[in-house]
Structures are given as structure tokens and as C-alpha cells.
Amino acid sequence: MGNVRNLQYDGLRGIAVLIVLLSHTSGRQQDLFFWNFHGIGKVGVYLFFVLSAFLLTSIVLRKGRSFKYGNYMKKRFFRIAPLYYLVLVFTLLMQQNYGVDKASLWIDGGMYSLLQHVFFYKGDSILWTIPVEFSFYFILPLLVIYLKKYQLSAISYQLSAISIMSFTMYILYNYFNIGIAPNMLNIESNTQYLECFFIGILAAFVNFKKIKFHLLNKKMIFTLWSVLFVSLLLISKSVILASGVEALYHLRSLTIIYAVIFGLTLIYISNNQISFFSNKFLVYTGKIGFSLYLLHLPIIAVVNKLSVYSYASLNFLISMSILYLVATHTFKYVELPFMKYANSK
Asked: pTM for the complete prediction?
């Protein structure tokens, strides 16, 4: 099951990327078949965070005493930094020549802001996910080592309590103006969305300890994902946001629900095969997903400016064709060489 399992993880990552792409293209006048998916992008980010936490926690647990923090951070740095820094340079050059385009990538605040980006402290535009992810890279091994001394029930209580507390405080503050919103709940904070990461960690512990859930089967996963896909249609701009209900735009109030679905899926596919998640297109999309994520906004912006076509779906197809072509090459010539270097002794 090793190869199949890895392919399914890539397939899930591919789904996460596609959700983001559908949201951002729709938000920039490139609707697919007249449906505006703008507003669903955060769900893709939730999936990526849960998946990242699950996979990295699994690595730490599997290595045990042989785990080396320095080697782990080296691999994480070279997985993210090379293409990320290249995109930062590209964004700065574009801003100097053409000004700031907030429909594309942008960096606000001059040299100080640039340094914050370089050191993974701040992220403007879609780059906000990078410091969030990197902050988690730092604390994950320490958190896993701390949790390993407890039984699974205690681990579940601790992670679930923090996740539910984070979720509840957000709802009370943003919908009822009760209490306070600590930094972990601030979209500009590097510690936001901890519950997504914690559910991913918990799923990894459940899988590592080989806990079986009798109700967790292919039919249940199919049902959960059917509900999820229907919800994406319902919460898109074509439905809820079209009525002016902005409260659901970031979908922050549904974080735990989505994260639990993703966590249960990861537990199941770790030991079982669902052919949908190992679909070749999804797997390939997940494989080059980081390039697709970092490069899609400038490509969409260029197509919108240069395109002579008035058909949104046609512009979408042009953007995606160019994006996949460019992302294939950046993965091959930028990401892959540094990944190989990081894995070398």
C-alpha cells in the first residue's frame, strides 16, 4: 500500500490546490461554466494544513529516536524557500516596473516588509500561508515529542480542547462580540488555524497507534466528501455570497467541520485505497501544487490584461494551460533540485 498511499496524499493535495484555483479564478472574472466559486478557497487551505500536519507528524513518530530536528528543518526550508524567494524577487521587480496590482501578488511596506517575508514572519496576498506553515514547522516536533508520553485518549483531550476553545472564542467574538480574539485567531497572525494543524496531528497519532474505527469505511468517506462538495457549491459566491451574506466568506466558522472530514479521510486512506484520490490528474496537480499555488495569481492577471476574449471560461482554460506548463518547469528546475539537495547527506 506504500505507493498507493503516497499517491492518495498527492491526490488530496491536488484537490486542495484546485479548490484554491477555482476560488481565485472566479474572483478575477474567470468563472468556470458560469459558476462563481469565489469564496471557497479557504477550504483548500484547511485541507492543506491538515494534510501537512498529518504527514509531518507521521514522519516524526515513525523516526522516533532517530529523528533529527536540524535535518528536518533543512528539508522544510529547502522545500519552501527556493521557489518562494524566486517569487518574492519576481513580485518586487513587477511592482517596481508596473506598480502594485492587488489582483495579483504584491508585497506591501517596502524593505522592512520584504525582510519580514524573507524570514517567514509576514505574508501579503496569498503568501500569508507561508509564515503560518513555517511557524508550524518549528513547533511540530516539540509538540509531538511532548504528546508521545501520553495515551491516545489524553492526546485527544488536549488537542481537541485547544481546537474547540479556539473555534468557540472565534465564534463568540466575531458573531456575538463576546470576549476577545487572541492572536491565534487573527488572520494576520502566524499562529492562526491551529485547530487545523492539531486535528492533523491527532489523525497521525490515531493512525500510528493503529486505532480502528468500525464506522470509518469507504461509504462513510464517500458520504462526507459528497456533503463537502455540495457545501462548496452552496457557500460559493453564486449562492450565499450573491445574497450579500459575507459572514461565511472566509468560512472560519466551519473550520473544525472541514478539518475533521479531512482528518478522517487521512486515517482511512492510510490503510485503504480510494481510486478517486489516486486519480492521475489529481496526483500530478498535488505533485506540482506548490508551484501552482505561488504562480497562479500573476498568470491569471496577465491573461486578463492581454486576452481579447470575453468568455470567462475560455480565459480560465487559457490561464490553467499556461499555469500548468509553467508550474511543471518550475517544479522540475527549481523545486526538485533543491529537494534532492536537502535529502542528500
From this structure: 0.87
